[in-house]
């Protein structure tokens, strides 16, 4: 049985009441599994032979201990996506950023405490493209005796959206790296591991069993690699109550939108006639490349439905439903209640403008002689061969430089028709250094170079506040006047709209090395990533903990 639950009680002497937190132990064995989907069988890498993988359950303030043991030939690491990892950057997981991989036959114990977060997050492999089949939910319950700030649901269900390739996923990315061209798109989307029917292969898809007259909390996770997704249920409204493990002001919608890495909790009230209702997941793609229109379906099945009942269908959003994504994103506001105040930094110490480009660089080893690359401020990030955190902590020279540019080296009309002709980028392992507790604003500016595209950016180690977003070029004078500094949504991942920008803020109060990257794996592979080093503070709890004894070495 997977979750071995060992309870240890701590008495917090500082508090008048008796506060309890638990230590939760999990064993993750990385093993191969064979499975048939889309009428095709393959062997793939999993945690504990499950797809999706096991769920981590914890309460806010609990200490989570996960022993990961690698029984496969691939190198592996696991990232606890959205967990803030206060002072425990060693347990964050991105390969060659905070740790070297766990190699065949090795184990590593991830050890972190969940602080100031509650809701749904996900864990996933963070090396090459293994997260395609190595991912699962993290359910963080509120502290004992603290209710949800919305009506208590009768039941909870986890819905994990994924992507499935009939081929070996590592072969897909290796083929793309060798050619320098875009990788093959997936063959289907999955809902809790089940693809719907595709031409030539019928499938039942996943069934979500419900009873009439109840309220369900659906914890929805986008664990896809490269696709932003819409999710809807025929005949039912969804009340959105939380995003990326932060409460939001509840609102009703019939379609939700999630980028890879994002999580959303919604309330579903089963107040329709007993019957079967279509659940649909479809991709959002407003850029003209990598066309993919596979809808994945599941069924909401009310208890007591007659066997021959027809499923009630729903219309699905078109691939290019940009307005829908904007309406959804604009509706997200943090709860900002007395209990959960929104602490957005008002005064900014570090102001950064990061321009996102796609380019083409020469490549001797590529069959085409060139390769597609992507860059932030014209820097295509090169992965180091030992971890940045190790190099930083032990002061090992020659691994990285701390001269990541704060602004684009070339100022141009980022979203206009007149783009630079020179599509080359620079490359390097460059990081940006931040003082402890400095307040940071980053404007992520999309550009129209080669392909204007939507880029879901993910920051490790922090949540950020989304104070503004817009289309076109960011205007330093006018746009800040419209910033929301009252109840901006707090997230760990957010899409930079196609040929537009987002402005995010965070306080750098967590020392360590923290990755910032596009969460479309294809773009991460192309170099759309960088890292921050946040220095230690001077206070007693303001330094990184020392590295664990079993930290994997390169
Ligand atoms: C998967 O299938 C292959 C080929 O049939 C077989 O050799 C292997 O043992 C199977 N692996 C697992 C984990 O079942
Ligand atoms: C987890 O980390 C804490 C803080 O460093 C330490 O006290 C504890 O012993 C660790 N637990 C395990 C199981 O390694
Ligand atoms: C990618 O797609 C092409 C064209 O369909 C196919 O020939 C190739 O085998 C695929 N590559 C992998 C790794 O599946
Ligand atoms: C069903 O519940 C939704 C809220 O999820 C509400 O908007 C709707 O009006 C209800 N419909 C009926 C028929 O009660
Ligand atoms: C979209 O899917 C439909 C139905 O499977 C198919 O007929 C059509 O060719 C697809 N369109 C594109 C652009 O792939
Ligand atoms: C979306 O795509 C459809 C079909 O390709 C096209 O007719 C429509 O103009 C597009 N809408 C937008 C807003 O680009
Ligand atoms: C990016 O760097 C390359 C190589 O130095 C240079 O040729 C190109 O003009 C730069 N492009 C931009 C947009 O800064
Ligand atoms: C990095 O850039 C240099 C100079 O343009 C080039 O020689 C080298 O091949 C590039 N490295 C990679 C991995 O692209
Ligand atoms: C961080 O800075 C804020 C704003 O200046 C201040 O209120 C807070 O006490 C500082 N925190 C630490 C740990 O220094
Ligand atoms: C440091 O952390 C410990 C344990 O979490 C806590 O008891 C203590 O109050 C903290 N000290 C300061 C100065 O914040
Ligand atoms: C696994 O990681 C080690 C350490 O970085 C590296 O030397 C080795 O080549 C990697 N093995 C594979 C199969 O990628």
From TrEMBL:
Keyword RNA-binding: no
Enzyme class: oxidoreductase
Gene Ontology MF: a single term: copper ion binding
Protein name: Laccase
Family to which the UniProt record says this protein belongs: Belongs to the multicopper oxidase family.
Keywords for the protein's UniProt record, in alphabetical order: Apoplast, Copper, Glycoprotein, Lignin degradation, Metal-binding, Oxidoreductase, Repeat, Secreted, Signal
GO cellular component: apoplast
GO biological process, one term: lignin catabolic process
Location relative to the cell: Secreted, Extracellular space, Apoplast
Signal peptide bounds: 1-21
Cofactor, free-text remark: Binds 4 Cu cations per monomer.
Catalyzed reactions: 4 hydroquinone + O2 = 4 benzosemiquinone + 2 H2O
Positions of the Plastocyanin-like domain: 33-144, 156-304, 403-537
NCBIfam families in the cross-refs: laccase
Entry superkingdom: Eukaryota
